[in-house]
Amino acid sequence: MINFYFALLMSVLIGWLAVIAFTPNTRRNFLLDAFLSVGLGLGICAQITFYSFLAIGEYNPTLIISLNILMMLFLFFINRKSIATAWRNTVFTRQDIVIGLFFLAMFDLIFTVANSQPFGQWDAWAVWNMKTKFLVFGGAEWKDIFQLHWHTQPDYPLLLPFINTWLFAMVQNHFQIIPSWTSVIFTGSGAGLLYAGLTRYIPWKIALLAAFILVTFPTYHFFGTTQYADITLSYYLLAAIILLTTTLREKHRGFAALLGMALGLMCFAKNEGLVMAIILALLAIVYLRKEPKIIGGLLLGLLLTTPPALILKIFLAPPNRDMGLFLFKAGGEYFNLNGLWIIIQQVAKAILGDPPFFLIWTPLLLMFLLQPQRYFKRETQTLTLFFLFYLACIILIYLTTIHFNLAWRISRTLSRILIILLPAVLFLNFYAYWRKDD
Amino acid sequence: MLLTTLRIVIIGFFLIVSTVHAVVSFQQYRRARVAGFAPSLQPGHEFADLPPFVLGNKKVGYFTDLDLSPENYDTGNFLSAQYQFAPALLDINNSDHTFILIDASSPESAFKISQRLQARPVYFNPYGKLLVQKP
């Protein structure tokens, strides 16, 4: 598996070069750079892999590796004069070493948990890993992915399968293990990113507590290592929330560009990511409406990483079956008060009836209810509005359920939604209560 | 004062909960370390010996007498079969393909479906999955 580590290192390097390309003269924390580079780098490599498929019509590991090496060299070239400056501006303390070692230890724990489900859960082999098989072994017929039976969600974006395809191109072996290791990377990096993002604005001990809550949560380990795209979406949502906060506070065009890149990667991760990215982008533009240069940075970032999602959705993937059926079929069964009541019941059951979720989510909700004014203070209101708008979207999506039993659908999906949102909600809550400039 | 009190309560509560979670997680970790890597059957293992018979075929028909509604766990049969057959597509209830996979609740049902399709059995594996071929 030495090739896997090399692929990961290359991805992190590409991610780091992308970060410093936009923020060379800005004070940055070493751990924030490290954990942000993991996701950005893997996302960029996955999108390059997607472009290689479009270019020659099939999986070609030589082309994939060559293009990624070219990207790395290109980023080195454009950063050649600023690498030294960027490194000097990176804050690196002794506690970063200790905390970095702590997160490395957590990776080992998460990896061991992942071994208890080596093939992931249902959607791993029914959707994501199965699609990776089409990409890697399908030859010129890889686009048959979009003709699969609707049970396998053929309209879904393909960031996770392309990340696994990129890693497989480097490793050329261990097809079954790569998705497991990918899930471990994103699960651990999400917790590290939470700490690194919070510590920029709140006392580091409190930031560590927030990350400790997440990284010790057994349910987070379980869902993170199911090999679903949920954990990648959770990571990119957290990255976007952190970058949005940084952009709004520091009014920095470079961070806005990185935010745009994170939003583009969210669009390519899952359909829910597309919804989240649209809400976040619109909120950012409204809040920054008097800063055209910063909006320009945001749009630049979006331009860099959104095309794969657009190409896939417009030219390749079939339309979403749920939306299509609802729009063209008069009167959805659950689009009424009964549907709303089922949603309320199932949410109460999920949070109040499940001890792990009850112990984490109830205090987080209470934090909001006890001091709501803190969540609408300055840039924090943008983050809060995102969660409120997204909550409305989830309710609408559930109310428009067509060919599932609604209670069943909620019972199968709600816990996953709660895990996707958890890191970002932890960030919002701890930021709202402990921000240093308060 | 209220904020300070709230902060202390929040920290205390989450410290307790996280410590309990950390202990649980560490116990799981120790058990897993001691037990070593637990071998697992790969998804769709009951179909694993069938794909070599259909190499080169882009699509394979799929017939079953199981309930394939989304809420039913029998859907997992189709999905795990699709995982094993990928990158070949399984085409539910379409007999216009050279090879057809019959995934039935019993051997009797499987062979009845085969007769109805007027297809020749190619391979019947130990898990009761029947691969047939149209003339």
Kindly summarize this structure in a few lines.
The complex is a heterodimer of chains A (about 450) and B (about 140). By secondary structure, chain A is mainly alpha-helical. Chain A has helices at about 1-20, 30-55, 60-80, 85-90, 95-115, 120-135, 160-170, 175-200, 205-215, 220-225, 230-250, 255-270, 270-285, 290-305, 305-315, 320-330, 335-350, 355-370, 380-400, 405-435, and strands at about 30, 90.
How does this structure look, described?
Chain A is mainly alpha-helical. Chain A has helices spanning 2-22, 30-56, 61-78, 83-88, 94-114, 122-137, 159-171, 177-199, 204-215, 218-224, 230-250, 253-269, 271-287, 292-305, 307-316, 321-328, 337-352, 355-370, 380-399, 406-434, and strands at 28-29, 90-91. Chain A is 76% helix and 1% strand. A two-stranded parallel sheet of chain A has the order 1-2. The mean pLDDT of chain A is 92. A five-stranded mixed beta sheet of chain B has the order 2-1-3-5-4, with helices on both faces. Chain B is elongated. Chain B is built from three helices and five strands; from the N terminus they run αβαββαββ. Chain B is α/β, with parallel strands linked by helices. In chain B, strand 4 (120-124) and strand 5 (129-133) form a beta hairpin. Chain B has helices at 2-35, 75-85, 107-116, and strands at 59-64, 89-92, 99-103, 120-124, 129-133. The longest helix of chain B is centred in the N-terminal third of the chain and has 34 residues, at 2-35. Chains A and B meet through helix 5, helix 6, helix 9, helix 18 and helix 20 of A and helix 1, helix 2 and strand 2 of B.
Give the arrangement of secondary structure elements.
The complex is a heterodimer of chains A (438) and B (135).
Chain A: H1 2-22, E1 28-29, H2 30-56, H3 61-78, H4 83-88, E2 90-91, H5 94-114, H6 122-137, H7 159-171, H8 177-199, H9 204-215, H10 218-224, H11 230-250, H12 253-269, H13 271-287, H14 292-305, H15 307-316, H16 321-328, H17 337-352, H18 355-370, H19 380-399, H20 406-434
Parallel strand pairs in A: 1-2
Chain B: H1 2-35, E1 59-64, H2 75-85, E2 89-92, E3 99-103, H3 107-116, E4 120-124, E5 129-133
Parallel strand pairs in B: 1-2, 1-3
Antiparallel strand pairs in B: 3-5, 4-5
